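>> received
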Amino acid sequence: MQKLQYVAHTPNKLGEWHSLQEHLSDVAIKAQGYAAKIGCDELGYYAGLWHDLGKYHPKFQQYLECCHLATENGRSSSCKKFPHAIYGACLAREYLQPLAPIIWGHHAGLPDKDKLTNDLSKENHAVQNEYRAVLQHVPETLLQVRSIQKSKQAMQGLAKDSTEMLIRMLFSCLVDADYLDTEEHFDPDAPKLRGGYKTVNLLWKIFQADQQQLFDRVKGIDSKVNQIRSEVYLACVEAAAQMPGVFRLAVPTGGGKTRSGLAFALKHAMIHNLDRVIVAVPYTSIIEQTVNVYRNILGEADVLEHHSAAKEPDDEDARQSYAKARLATQNWDASLVVTTTVQLFESLFANRPSRCRKLHNLVGSVIVLDEVQTLPMFLLTPILSGLKELVDRYRVTVVLCTATQPALEGESRYLEGFTAGSVRDIVSSALAKQHFAGLARVNYEIKEQTWSWEQLVADIKEHNHDRALIILNTRKDALAVLDTLQNDDEIDADSLLHLSTLLCGEHRRQVLNQVRNRLDRHQPCLLVSTQVVEAGVDLDFPAVYRAIGPLDRIVQAAGRCNREGKMPEKGRVVVFEPEQGSKPKGDYETAAKRAEGILKSPELDLHNPDTFETYFKVLYKDVKLDQLDIQKKRTNFNYPEVAKNFKFIKDDTTPVVIQFDDRVRKHLKQIQRRDLNSGDYRKLQPYLVNLRQNDFKGTEALREEIAPGLWVWERLSYDELKGIKIGDRSIDFDPADLVQ
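>> returned
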């Protein structure tokens, strides 16, 4: 098909070029609709209308023609790029200044305020000359500005951090609208793959029916666990009618928090006309279990699982394969999203388009933070600031869920928490204490002397624990214990299993299924694990060994012991200090040291929820809760530095795809034939392992990039027990060890 005079993108599979004027108009209408949710529909409209004005420049049109020829001839592009976003930003600077950083960054990412000022300065003659050249080709109708009074009111009197967040939201509106319209051009069938999710109202009805079936199944079974789970569920359903805001759900391990928390969220969203529920969990090991629980209740198609899949490809490359890779990212348009806290908060403070596109879908939502005590303390101040902003200005309800509640309420010189008295208990404090006492199913043994790995194994044998969970602080320690058990002739090698982030998600899922089957049948099962197993994973061992760590982690580990309360006596939880062991540096190590002191107290009661609030209040005095000055960078509108520093794991990682089974191998072959599409990342997620940069850079021979940003790991460098390895060496350094 013949090229139009002005186009936005290269031809699609039907050979059709993308009209630039149509693209600008369609993106403007989409962005206007998204921005209406935050009272800035006019700004959304003009952001969409002007974002690609720079593409009217003849040099950009020549660049697109060159890219098209490169794609047609199957060769890499040597076309000289021509940045276009800056010229729409020049126009915004003249008429609607808040849109300047949004338009400037819709490919490269939200900029630093000082850089933006310099780039758009009238003294920057090179840019100004090209800007005037662009205006000669832009239709006059695109340059007319109507009243924006409504948007001005929405921005009036905002504090700097509130303005910074509003710009993020507007950026998200523009980027998502742009991505969706571009995706529809390259693949006209793509919109059919997005959307179509059931509403929260319908999901709540389905949930109610499933819950009634559960009640019918357990009717007549008189157990303390079932009684407490029923009381927690009824409290959640009753509290859902309360006005949106911040809620606390304190439930002991095994008390039905996963299911009851979803009941609260769905009913609350239905009553208050909210669009979606977003459940954020700390570990991928939990996300797999949580997703399975929700899909068993609500069906496969209506639970969107999203954590990570690939590094973001080059935003400025116009070749089709790169465009498709960008467009395949998730925008959280489902009614129920299950993600990780890393994905949620690093997206909230990101500056790159593909990470930010989902943010406008946080508006009018219920965010359930599962195992909230695992939020990194060194980022706690910006996290709480972001959550307060979402609650105060964007119709968001936040639910803080855990058995070990941190002290996030009130303000002091150490912590800027939620306003005192604003966090409402879903389960009353008095009833929660009864529940914790009622589900006290273990005895703690705190060992005073350090243990070698051999002494640990000796204790397991001495107490005839053929079914036990051993949790270590690092992957290196877990592998060392695994080796010690393997080298002991009295230990049944077939009983050994391993769980850590060295294993891909599908492998971990299979290991967990093996563990549950063995436990159900009272077969030998010695599971050696890192922290990934101790929060939210539904396992029930008669004995648990936990290397000394933060106090909340110890109690979470105990939640995997005698979980269902079916043992005739209480379960055994052994807390020990490894002689050869190590701990992740920073805040984790500080919290572990504070726990060591508390564990020596004769008055210690780990079955009392008040213990943890006191522990966290003391702990917050020991650590800096905005260690990297994120809040200062936010008020300076330095978006790249905020994104660079706001990392749960300080050492950047890159995911690789493990060729674990025939299913993933078949799917990878399909991708190689046709490039990435929007459904691929979701299907690949169970097969990912994250590598820190040193390991990634040193393994060129063990991986292959089959699509932009998508790396596949060599099959023979993966062990069925220990997971990913480099040659004969396991990768025992865990990026999570760097969390401070």
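>> The longest strand covers residues 276-281.
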